[in-house]
Amino acid sequence: MTSSLNQMIEESRLLKVIARNWAFCFLISFIVLFSFTGRGFFSIVNFQNIIHLSVIAILMASAETFVIISGGIDLSIGFVMGLSSVTAGKIIQIMFNSGNFSPAFSIFIGVSIALVVSILPGLLSGIVISKYRVPPFIATLGMWGITNGIALKICKGFPVAMLPDSLTKIGNGYILYFKRGDGFSFFGLPYGVGNDKIREYLRLIPNSFIFLIIILLVLWHLLKNTKFGQHTYAIGGNEDAAVRSGIDVKKHIVKIYVLSSFIAGIAGVFNVFQTGIGNFTTFGAMYELFAVAAVVIGGASLMGGKGRLIASVIGVFLIAVLENGLLISGIEPFYRYIAVGLLLILAVVIDELFPDLF
């Protein structure tokens, strides 16, 4: 039966496209379904909110995509994000509240140091995995605990508050504001209009959307059009063959985990801009597990050698739309976990049944 189904799909170009992009087809189906069941779901405002709230998840899935394609897994990215967030928040807090530095300079230094710090967990994990042959699951699980402990030590178990207001104005701002009769305003409300009037304006194109597009284009180019991306696929497909072809596998693995950790650090910095505080990651957040789920739903294989960045993004949006649609439709949100679990199992089954399609 499986062989005949494979043959039928191979003979039909349409079925092949659908099978290859089943996650995207599910995404469109959910959008159509929730447009009927959830009032206000199909609106510009709601879709912009979905994108804005999905930025961190997309960054985490992007980080995990590189690692999974190489045949590894990174369980530490959730707590690396928390470490980056509280590091940036603490430095900004100290500098800004001292009164000796401007908000812009405090933010610049805090963000820069946080991004540098975020590289270290990936560097250590990469060295342990490549040089000492520790399984990625164990190495990054250990780093999971280390980064969480350091983050909690920095913030003493409390979110880092009292940061400049400009953080959230940037992180939650929009490119365009429109009100009938007043016309368009760029990058902020018209002069003299307070935030209490913001609901009177249609807000278009979140700043986070532009930020996300830039990051994704850079990562897409890195994976698709550079030797780094080619070597990543080669190592995940067959590590021994990659070694024989002259690739410095150990060095490249270190680079992959450094990149993964750095992207998680960017997510932590964005979290500060989005919330206005430095947040440590709670144990129940499971950012890394949802990132893995999104990547696998997008068609990547946990065995390595296969995956697409855009497909991982679709995987994130599929989960986000599902959660948002259930909420707007009045369905209890814990069904999200059941639905994501079913989608994850379905993704693995499709990968096993039709391995040549991806």
How much helix, percentage-wise, in residues?
Answer: 55-70%
CATH architecture: Orthogonal Bundle
Structural class: mainly alpha
Helix-strand pattern: HHHHHHHHEEEHHHHHHH
Outline the biggest β-sheet: 3 strands, antiparallel
Q: Looking at CATH, which topology would you report? A: ABC transporter involved in vitamin B12 uptake, BtuC
The top level CATH class name: Mainly Alpha
Round the Cα radius of gyration to an integer and report it: 22 Å
* Head-to-tail CA distance between termini: 20 Å
Assembly state of the chains shown: single chain
Q: Biggest sheet, strands in spatial order?
A: 2-1-3
Q: What percentage of amino acids are in beta strands?
A: under 5%
What general outline do the C-alpha atoms trace?
A: globular
Task: Tell me about this structure.
This protein has 358 residues and is mainly α. The chain has helices spanning 2-11, 13-20, 22-37, 44-69, 77-97, 103-132, 136-155, 166-171, 207-225, 227-237, 239-244, 249-275, 287-297, 309-328, 335-353, and strands spanning 174-179, 183-186, 202-206. It has one domain (23-173, 209-357): Orthogonal Bundle (ABC transporter involved in vitamin B12 uptake, BtuC). Helices cover 70% and strands 4% of the residues. The protein has a three-stranded antiparallel beta sheet with strand order 2-1-3.
